[in-house]
Amino acid sequence: MSDMDEDGVLTDAEEEEETQAKEASGDEKVQVSHLTEETIRQGLSLLCRTGCGLEHTFIKLVLKDKGLNDIAAVSSYNHIRFLDVSNNHLTDLSPLASLTHLLWLKVDNNAVASFNGQPFAQLPFLQLLSMAGNQLTDIDGLAAPSLERLNLTGNGFQRMNGFQGDCFANLAILELRGNQLDTTDGIDLPNLERLYLAQNVIKRLEGLEKLERLTVLHLRDNQLDSLKGLSAGMKRLQYLNVRGNAIADENTLQSLSLVSTTLQALVLSENPLVESSDYRVSVLTFLPELEQLDKDPVTPEERLLVSCSHTHYYSQVNLEQ
């Protein structure tokens, strides 16, 4: 359960990520600065051997909070593998086309409005891309077969169209917190392992049967009143967070039985349902193997109560027969 505990902590400690979009839309005007060679030299680190092994060069460059609206000067640093240009005013990333060794790119809190015309097709080894707090509404123009983690928190997505396995064959972690999604439909990524969709306006669980390798599904602070849509096709789901939704009907817990063989941790707090004094026992009726509910471990006493309730139920059935 250590992995699941870690996931639970990470997904609940979201305050910093939740503010990314707000920071990007602040009213204060920041003076735009031009990128100079001196600024680049100050941001370089992580000395590493070059491909031939006879020379050394810096492969990490951090240019955060520089007031930049142009990064053309970066184009000659083609050995860079890790680049952070967060908290600037960038709209055009085309100078990165020559950085063909890039593995890791953060462009959080800028003003990028589209993937079309951006250089991602020229970055064949890119594994991590973070574009939180920009102005994106779709992923048209983004094809990154090596990408393993994609963060699109705090943009303007209303639908998840375009997330197909042929364009994102290796994508394992997708973050779309703080957008305007009202459904989970549109993702066809059979290799996806973690999906973070907190702080949207999701009302329906749809299309989840395609996510056969998903282990973590995070749906905190949405508008769900039902768990209908969970699928037996989610054969590896271990952690489900639906905290802060509108789930009130105990009957909707029946959908949990579809993932009962794999689910280890469930977060249901801040739903109307939890006001019932015996809701934990109700949940365990459908999830007898659950290890953790709302951050608290399932106790032996709770398992005994569930067992007794099952015994009483079957005794009543036999008597009626």
TrEMBL record:
<keyword id="KW-0963">Cytoplasm</keyword>
<dbReference type="Pfam" id="PF14580">
    <property type="entry name" value="LRR_9"/>
</dbReference>
<dbReference type="InterPro" id="IPR001611">
    <property type="entry name" value="Leu-rich_rpt"/>
</dbReference>
<keyword id="KW-0969">Cilium</keyword>
<feature type="compositionally biased region" description="Basic and acidic residues">
    <location>
        <begin position="19"/>
        <end position="32"/>
    </location>
</feature>
<keyword id="KW-0282">Flagellum</keyword>
<dbReference type="Pfam" id="PF00560">
    <property type="entry name" value="LRR_1"/>
</dbReference>
<feature type="compositionally biased region" description="Acidic residues">
    <location>
        <begin position="1"/>
        <end position="18"/>
    </location>
</feature>
<protein>
    <recommendedName>
        <fullName>Leucine-rich repeat-containing protein 23</fullName>
    </recommendedName>
</protein>
<dbReference type="InterPro" id="IPR032675">
    <property type="entry name" value="LRR_dom_sf"/>
</dbReference>
<keyword id="KW-0433">Leucine-rich repeat</keyword>
<keyword id="KW-0206">Cytoskeleton</keyword>
<keyword id="KW-0966">Cell projection</keyword>
<keyword id="KW-0175">Coiled coil</keyword>
<keyword id="KW-0677">Repeat</keyword>
<feature type="region of interest" description="Disordered">
    <location>
        <begin position="1"/>
        <end position="32"/>
    </location>
</feature>
<dbReference type="InterPro" id="IPR003591">
    <property type="entry name" value="Leu-rich_rpt_typical-subtyp"/>
</dbReference>
